[in-house]
Structures
1.
Amino acid sequence: MSTVRVRFAPSPTGYLHVGGLRTALYNYLFARKNAGTFILRIEDTDQTRYVPDAEQKLLDIIRWSGLTYDEGPDVGGPKGPYRQSDRIEIYRMYAQKLLDEGKAYYAFETPEELEAMRAEQERRGLSTKYDRRALKLRTDEVRAKLEAGVPHVIRLKVPDNVTITFTDIVRGTVEFSSDQLDDQVLIKSDGFPTYHLANVVDDHLMEISHVIRGEEWLPSTPKHVLLYEYFGWTMPQFAHLPLLLNPDKSKLSKRQGDVAVEDYKEKGYLPEALINFVALLGWNPGDERELFTLQELVQEFSLARVGKSGAVFNVEKLNWMNAEHLRRKASSEILPMLKEELARSRFSDRAFADEYLLMVIDAMRERISFVRDILAKSPYFFEAPSSYDADVVKKRWKKETAAHLTVLRDAFMKLNHPTREQYEAVLHATAQQLGIGNGQLIHPLRLALSGVGAGPGVFDLVAILGKEETIRRLTTAITKLS
RNA sequence: GGCCCUAUCGUCUAACGGUCUAGGACGCAGCCCUCUCAAGGCUGAAAUACGGGUUCGAUUCCCGUUAGGGCUACCA
């Protein structure tokens, strides 16, 4: 029984794609479930796409997501370095080995020449593929070019007419003909490796047991299989995950909405909810449960239950899930989040006691999907209403209402440190005294205090706002709405 | 174009040949609860792409068609 070692190997592009988060999650879950090791490896071999701070941002957002890794660029580990740009010599060495054994070769075409070649192939209705013109060069010609410093790449020499087969854990047996494969560039002219070489070399050196990655890699897997064979290395097991899709079923992309985990963080989604949601995109526990903590996912996860077809990223369901996770949190956990939202809002200059905010949270927690909804749906907890919802006024505020509320206000005034229950008793008594239904006081009271017709129970509202503020708002409403 | 992958309600999915009147969830609609709004409970509309096989029996296995997607870079 071999040990499980898996990796998430993102390239630092400046943000983490939610599809990448799902890939990271499945790797994490698989590792934790099987008492294995989860490795983070930075695949920064594309100099042209270098983005400053991208790696740090990536690390930060992974940390936010709650996925912890055992080996990685910032935590170290026995198989490092974990940043590919720090491993260039290693790749060059292995490329040289391939060169020596005739399994790879130098090529000297410029990007422009290659583009012209492809254009010509396309014009003639052929599939675009490197035509191996460099293979026609004699050894002395190659040596001369190298000595003259002509820019060059190293290409993989793909054998003719062989069938490359591998088993994918989610897809079963997959077959490719080598004739379809391009002589993949292994080392670019800047000396950096391409994904294909670096990935295979690192996975081997880091003793990766399972390669769990997105389906977009399926077509290049035969190239990787070939490399393992050329090097004489045992192959890891492959598991290609179904793609995450836009509503129009194309591969999830920017342009059609938010794809960066950072975007969702920014919008106020809980990491627990986002993790739970992407976990269910392509995997299910086999029963009807849907709400999971990370720990529960670890217990339940298995690659055998990963599906094959792409999944549309449906924000509606994510919103519901966020609300569910929010409800499961203790109010004390929500408190710092609410404070943060307040600090970023127009109420930033106001101070509220923790006990007060905690009461607000308890009153609102069943009514929101996001912490910031507390501000949006119930600003009246943070400032007196400046206007009254016209529809509600029309429906609830009758000509005699001002008089009724005045009686109620005066009754409230006589109270000494009243409880929620006392407010309720007083209102009931007042209604009886006035010979009206409780609703004829309750609805106008809510309107006076909040300016709107919806929200927590009025007695909770009154109790939270307190006697003084309640009376103040009642007085204002009586004046303004008369 | 070539190669590869995929195909159950609008969306996420269950079903691993019979228990299918095809189950659950989100969303949607209605009802109940109720001081409002939520939450909760109940109910409803909503799917096996199509055509051939295999089988006593196909959502499930095979083939084809169609549709969608991915890849086809000195990007990952």
Note: The two ends of chain A are 81 Å apart (CA to CA).
2.
Amino acid sequence: MNITLPDGSIKQVEQGATIADVAASIGAGLAKAAIGGKINCAYADLDTVVPEGATVEIITQKSPDARQILCHSCAHVLAEAVQILYPGVQIGYGPATEDGFYYDFALPSPLSTEDFPAIEAKMAEIIAKDEPFVREVVSREEAAGLFINQRLKVEHLHELDSDAEIIVRRHGDFIDLCNGPHIPSAGLIGAFKLMKVAGAYWKGDASREQLTRVYGTAFFKKKDLDEYLHNLEEAEKRDHRKLGRELGIYTMDPMAGVGLPLYLPKGARIIRTLQEWLRRDLYARGYEEVITPHIYNAEVWKTSGHYGYYHDNMYFFNINEGDADNPRYSEYGVKPMNCPGHVMLYKNDLHSYRDLPLRYFEFGTVYRHEMSGVVHGLLRARGFTQDDAHVFCTREQLVDEVLAILDLVDHIMSTFGFEYSAEISTRPEKSIGTDDMWEHATNVLKDACARHGLAYDINEGDGAFYGPKIDIKVKDAIGRTWQCSTVQVDFNLPERFGLTYRTEDNTEERPWMLHRAIFGSIERFLGILIEHYAGALPLWLAPVQVAVLPLADRHNDAAEELAATLRAAGGRVDVYAQNEPMRVKIAKAQSQRIPYMVVLGDKEIENGTISVRSRHEGDQGSWPVEKLVEIIADAAL
RNA sequence: GCCAGUGUGGCUCAACGGUAGAGCAACUGAUUUGUAAUCUGUGGGUUGCGGGUUCGAUUCCUGUCACUGGCUCCA
């Protein structure tokens, strides 16, 4: 029979061989490295006899999912240690995550990081024993007995299908309701570390009890753990909140309120540059820019449905339109989105099929009263600016419009060197619109992705209540993914606001409506860019492109003159005229990630040249002024 | 909103029951500097805010606000 090796090749082995035999037959090295086997996608132990005709994958430490298996096994070790140290603990779930694992516990008093050393020591003890993870199939009754003191496990047991095979996993005295896969024995865990504690709702449901979640990570080799920890430090250095302060991009003032960033001059420059850059592209692509109010009478939000659905997440206020003696209050709401404004603009005129598609865009600043626990620097703020657009079109035009948006997304994201992937979210349970509309719209989104050559995952039932959507996730320089662009079909607003157009046959038809954003939130996108580039924004976007560094006071005039020349070419230039040694000026400019530093001293002034230093490549030697002027002019929008 | 942790000068941190300290930054003065941080001096904090325990609180307790990490949420 055949087995599949990690490299994808096929190998024949004898009937009746166990997984361990199979591993051994591949060669001593691999056999030693084998950490588990997969039979028809169900994982089994090394002593499991491979059934006739089955395809077996021997997973080695180098296999892509090997570390996940290791991490999940380490979660068992964690639970085992906690159970020993805290008798009576209720254990929840303990899966592997992208970069480690966690295990949820219900304890009389929560754990803290101070408890980690003791738990880690106990885990190390368990790992040192190198006991096997033993898989057992038990009856439902046996399982109920085994977990008699584990109410969370019993709850899980009751939720399994009645005909499901009940698989438990023993390790030492620890037993878990879990079908794996696991490593053969705990000794393979070469290095692990508990990372943090957090609260987590049982089964992810905010209405249920909150458990203590312990996060950790594990590796086959100590070296890999060290590297992982080092990478975490590097990621921390890129944190946009830290760089945002160091680079003078934005600040938060507690007096202003939570989640309301204030942009410093450099931050404002970047945001305006991003906007201008996108604006030009959008004009070229047939979008028309509009401007709509920041507040609307509450009637608008009642019509749109936001008043009911999102009332607590919006900023509403009353204003006295009468006087002190005869007060007459009107209610207004600050916009959490720009759609109603664009819809009202559409309604400003009667529309013919000849007008369509109509593409309105706006850099619309919106305010959402996000829950206090979710605000996070620029990445999740309560006030932010969407690069928002709405497309009104016919049913037939829809697919080409989506395709055009995907093309735009591709252009924008590839400019920043982002790889990206797509997810299509389909009809949720609570939703409006007919089956036909949902089917057509969802197919249009799929079709557009296919035509664009964009692979997509399906998020079943994850669409908005008013229509399906495509979400674009970008991958940054250190491999993290961020959701940015979105394309959404909206069945709700055209209906609620009664939008129509005249067809060729002079009948009245409802237009189809698309929402789309490329950056999503411009400020959030800026935060992502800061982390992506570790603060070193590309030349065209850098708030300061050139730092002119006069060597001594007597060179300051020449420095100002050079700065003026560069500014005339569209450059953003700072002169470092303070009385400081060159190495200090260089250090300061460098820590500001300024793309070009120009040293100006007697030598340069005499020769009519400049000495240029690049932030990444260092000293570039002597340049004619024109060379830098040209580079700066090229980078101007 | 929930769970846990943390709040000390603009920033990064120390002191942890006995009158709050350093570095960076700021300001003085010196230095006029050649590719990642020169020397000198000065000023700056009712230790987030309120209450309690104590002879005495930055330190212990409590409430509150904010921040951090998660969870839930993200139209």
Note: Chain A has four domains: 2-59, 66-235, 267-294+335-530, 546-635.
